[in-house]
Predict the structure.
Amino acid sequence: MRSTTRKNNALYVLIATVAALAVLAAVLIAGTVLINGESSERKNGLDNMYSSAFYDLSDSANNIEVNLSKLMIADGKKESVTVINDTTAQAELASSSLSRLPLEPDNVEKTVKFYNQVGDWCRSYAAAILTGADTESYREQAETLYIAARNINESLKDVSAEMNGRAISECVGDDRLLAFDMNFNVGDMQNNSVEYPELIYDGPFSDSKKYDFRALDGMEDVSSDRAVEIAAERTGLENAELIGETDGKTPVYQLRGTVNGDDASVSVTKRGGLIIAYDRTKAVEKVNLIREEASAKAADYAARLGYESLQPVWYNSENGVGFVNLAPVVDGVTYYTDLVKVKVALDDGEILGAEATGYCSGHCERSLAATISENTARSLVSPKIAVENVSLAVIPYKEAERFCYEIYGSYKGLDYFVYIDAVTGEQADILRVIDSAQGSLIM
């Protein structure tokens, strides 16, 4: 337990930090709040700066909420430090973004203080883990911080909705920019629990950095003429022309042509002649297909490209396009390392794109053997989680991969996937399911 002196010193540092940020905000206001007398170019420059700051703030606020929801049920061991450190960084980014907005100091003080407290709490939590101290109290504190972070995040979403795409200077009256009150409901900040105690979203495990292209091992090279034939057979590419070749991690032929009259491009691997990328430009008129229909069409198309035994593992939609991630499922093991991603037009089910870098780089036969039982894996998950399903999965991990138990469950209305290493019993990852208008996002 920390001494009273250390707590007080930390509190003094926190107060000094808040004061410094408040002064910075006041300086910004003094230099930027008057807009009626500014030139159009100057106003546009200010709006761009403020919009960037507000976007960064919203992004950090969302990441902090998600990370704290993970820390509520994390095991408090060294594997949690990555999430804790990211939360520290996000809190610093949030404070920095606030300082770049022309906000009244009185309207931002509590929120700046909250983000500084989150950063201090995270540093203390990480130190406790690394020294082997009892961390149960931190997991309890994470719930208090999560509620506050969620309130801030929701308030920012409300502000964004009120702006409705308009420039920030158009959203206020008189001569001042941003009259928003950023003192959101962050709860009781005086108790000991908080005094100083993780484009279009691409789906979970979609950014694996492993590029060995093991699926191509032992395959023969194909000519450019054969690549054109393969593209025509599997994607329907017509009027094809070779526009280039690459010699990167895996050499490919880059082709351009049309599919049903729409412009399209196809990348074919020189070794093996696999379709590694496909893109088609087509307007989508309306939405007719539901998630299950789009996912089925994606799986059928992947099989047509030569990628079989795949099952949908993630779905999202935006602007009339369904985005489906497919993974091989072999002997009850889901291989998130070997993804094939497919874009489906939700009006007529036509395929608008496909990308198989994950599959081509990772798919091969593996020899997997769990050394801990399913029951043991269940026991290693926080007892707060109501476990609903347990299965096996291979997930990307840094530059390699890990064989894990994938444990799905919920806590206080929040859904989680917890990954327990099937060999070591370590917690490998935690993902949170977030429902949105487009589908279920996983972070």
